[in-house]
Amino acid sequence: MNLFQSITSALDNALAKDPTAVIFGEDVAFGGVFRCTVGLRDKYGKDRVFNTPLCEQGIVGFGIGVAVAGATAIAEIQFADYIFPAFDQIVNEAAKYRYRSGDLFNCGNLTIRAPWGCVGHGALYHSQSPEAFFAHCPGIKIVIPRSPLQAKGLLLSCIEDKNPCIFFEPKILYRAAVEQVPVEPYNIPLSQAEVLQTGSDVTLVAWGTQVHVIKEVAAMAQEKLGVSCEVIDLRTILPWDTETVCK
Question: Which residue numbers delimit the Transketolase-like pyrimidine-binding domain (predicted)?
Answer without folding.
Answer: 1-176
